[in-house]
Write a structure and sequence with these properties.
The complex is a heterodimer of chains A (143) and B (159).
Chain A: H1 3-29, H2 36-58, H3 79-101, H4 107-128
Helix pairs in contact in A: 1-2, 1-3, 3-4
Chain B: H1 5-28, H2 31-34, H3 48-69, H4 76-94, H5 111-135, H6 138-157
Helix pairs in contact in B: 3-4, 3-5, 4-6, 5-6
Classes of the chains: A mainly alpha (143), B mainly alpha (159).
């Protein structure tokens, strides 16, 4: 794996760490009856994080660690702002995977990237549909 | 003047000779026989994006037909706008020639049928674009991956 590919995988790993942290905040502001989508998304990001860490370790790279803390893009105080944050997290991970696609020539890694980009785009749209005033569909997720 | 035997002979020989000459010409006609065959001219393989452009344009035609029949199919207009953006981006990347008018598409008879047809079309489109993303040079992978993700996400709206 080239240095560029390693850097790209580290970039998406950092984004997945941020998403896992962010879903902790999201879950803390959703009512018990609305936890399922957040829990499923959280688990999906944890799986991607673990896959990336294993891929990097197998290539003798030290996977980047999660930051001790992250800045929220806007205050999160209720269920609505939590759902907005969830959409933001998915758009962020979609952008990271999209950027990685540009430098992953290996079929297996590119397959992972396009699958992860698709998953994040689907979840981002699902979250946006729960936030009044958000656009619904976007033509180029990840950009 | 009566024809002599000798003149007859000359005539027949000429006739035969003419025939032979013609036969020879005919035999020589295919260029490959008497000269070294020229190398077959192979045009460059067509850009694989051209097939995607055509498929996206066919999808636009399908949305137009369904929107004309069922203007209230939820989100169909927004999804159609996404596909129009995809066509423009793919055209810019592939230098595709001007579009021919899409073949007429008949809309299904019911709203449920229309939604099912669009769902099937989006599944096919996403699979096609994902495959193209995996096969494309790195410079094209981002656009194709993004379009594939968009098409898969359309299924969230087509219910």
């Amino acid at each position: 794996m080239t240095r560029v590919e390693t850097a790209a995988l580290q970039g998406v790993l950092a984004a997945e760490h941020a998403a896992v942290w962010g879903y902790g905040v999201v879950g803390g502001h959703l009512p018990a009856t609305a936890q399922d989508p957040a829990r499923q998304a959280d688990q999906a990001h944890r799986r991607r994080r673990d896959t990336l860490s294993a891929l990097l370790a197998a290539r003798f790279a030290t996977p980047v660690a999660a930051a001790p803390d992250y800045d929220l893009p806007f205050p999160v105080a209720d269920a609505l702002s939590a759902r907005r944050l969830a959409a933001h997290l998915e758009q962020g991970t979609a952008a990271a995977w999209h950027a990685a696609l540009a430098v992953l020539p290996v079929a297996e890694l590119r397959h992972l990237a396009v699958t992860a980009l698709t998953d994040a785009a689907i979840r981002a749209l699902q979250w946006r549909l729960t936030v009044p005033g958000e656009v619904s569909t976007v033509p180029f997720p990840g950009t | 003047m009566p024809l002599t035997r000798r003149r007859l002979l000359i005539r027949s020989l000429r006739a035969v000779g003419g025939g032979l000459a013609l036969a020879g010409l005919t035999a020589c006609d295919p260029p490959g026989r008497s000269r070294p065959a020229p190398r077959p001219h192979r045009p460059p393989a067509p850009d694989p994006l051209l097939g995607l452009v055509a498929a996206e344009e066919a999808l636009l035609g399908q949305y137009d037909a369904i929107l004309a029949a069922f203007p209230l199919v939820r989100a169909a207009a927004a999804i159609r706008a996404d596909h129009a953006a995809h066509v423009a981006a793919l055209r810019a990347l592939s230098h595709a020639p001007a579009a021919s008018p899409p073949a007429a598409v008949r809309a299904p008879g019911t709203v449920a049928g229309a939604v099912a047809a669009l769902r099937a079309a989006e599944v096919s489109a996403a699979a096609r674009t994902t495959a193209a993303c995996l096969a494309a040079p790195a410079g094209r992978a981002t656009l194709l991956g993004s379009i594939a993700a968009c098409e898969s996400a359309h299924l969230v709206l087509l219910r």
